[in-house]
Amino acid sequence: MEYLIAIGFTILLTVVGFVFGTINEKKHYASILEREEKLLNLPTLTVSAKSLSQDLDLNQFSQVRLVSGGTVLSIDYFKRFLGILRMFFGGNISAYESLIDRARREAILRLKEQAGNADLIINLKLETSDVGSGSGKKNDSSVTCIETFAYATALYK
Amino acid sequence: MITSNIDLIPGKKIIEHYGLVSGSTVRAKHVGSDILAGFKNLVGGELKAYTELLEEAREQALDRMIQQAQGLGANAVINVRFSTSSVVEGAAEIYVYGTAVKVD
Q1: Which residue has the higher pLDDT, B92 or A11?
Q2: How far apart are CA B4 and CA A11, in angstroms?
Q3: What are the CA-CA distances from residue B5 to residues A19, A66, A114, B14 (Å)?
Q4: Chain B residues near residue A58 by CB distance under 8 angstroms
Q5: pTM tops 0.90
Q6: Which residue(s) pair with A74 in the sheet?
Q7: Which long-range contacts (CB under 8 A, 24 or more apart) does B31-38 make?
Q8: Within 10 A of A55 (CB to CB), how many other CB atoms are there?
Q9: pLDDT exceeds 70 at position B22
Q10: Cβ atoms of residues B74 and B101 within 8 Å
């Protein structure tokens, strides 16, 4: 009987995770796409100033500023379950791929929003770190949330 | 104080070089945000408390670096880099370093 309750509870959590996780992800992707379109006119490059100065006169810019953006995203219960299953069989964990994709794009978007009316953003660096499990259990090997952080130099005319 | 992660300041000349400056901070999240994070682990999504925590930590590390640069008499820090590491479970260390210079 107790086993049945435990299994039932796990299934319930998985269903709740699936429903809300899917809704959350769809909403997030919609907002990412909308904002990406809005900020499309602000070129963001990963090239450094030295290689850029061969093609472009950097002296036309009068102001520089270090800009950054970051986010901490958590995966839902259902996808975590999928991930654990995948770790057993091996292969692509597509459930985690979308999480990291969303986190990186969100970080870059926040960076661009912080840059305001910049003319160019160069030397973009992306950093990803594992914040660790919320429960703090040592033997919990599955990644439960990740942090992405982007920083770059914004140039203003 | 000008900060940038490129190795020059456009339109300005570097006249003096002060070497490496750095700042670091170790921050832990409080229990309340941990409980909320546990709930968010169920439905997925952004952990706003953690985002804010790390943002504040980075700002503090930057402030410490800038203070060090000001103490040296610099007016700009170039080639700034960030790095994150977890010292203990539930805490994050933010380290930021750069080169302090004086520009005209």
Answers
A1: A11
A2: 50
A3: 42, 7, 16, 15
A4: 8, 10-11
A5: no
A6: A145, B45
A7: B34/A134, B34/A135, B34/A136, B34/B90, B37/A74, B37/A134, B37/A145, B38/A134, B38/A135
A8: 7
A9: yes
A10: yes
**Alpha carbons within 13 A on the beta-carbon side of A57:** 5
Chain A 52-91, CB below 8 Å of chain B: which residues?
53, 58-62, 64-66, 68, 70-77, 79-80
Q: Which two tokens stand for residue A91?
A: 């292969």
C-alpha to C-alpha distance for A119 and A61, rounded to whole angstroms: 9
Could you report the predicted ipTM of this complex, rounded to two decimals?
Answer: 0.86
Q: What is the 3-state secondary structure (H, E, C) of chain B?
A: CEECCCCCCCCCCEEEEEEEEEEEEEEECCHHHHHHHHHHHHHEEECHHHHHHHHHHHHHHHHHHHHHHHHHCCCEEEEEEEEEECCCCCEEEEEEEEEEEEEC
List the one residue out of A118, A129, A128 whose CA is nearest residue A152: A118
**Cβ <8 Å between B84 and A149:** yes
pLDDT tens per residue across span B44-102: 888 888 888 888 889 999 999 999 999 999 999 999 999 888 777 667 788 999 999 99
Q: Which two tokens stand for residue A10?
A: 């796990």
Task: Quote the percentage of chain A above a pLDDT of 70.
Answer: 91
Q: What does the alpha-carbon distance between residue A141 and residue A132 come to, in Å, rounded to a whole number?
A: 9
Cβ distance A136 to B89 less than 8 Å, yes or no, reads yes
Query: Dihedral of CA A41/A45/A49/A50: which sign?
Result: negative
**E strand map for chain A:** 63-76, 120-130, 145-156
What pLDDT, on a 0 to 100 scale, did the predictor assign at position A106?
93
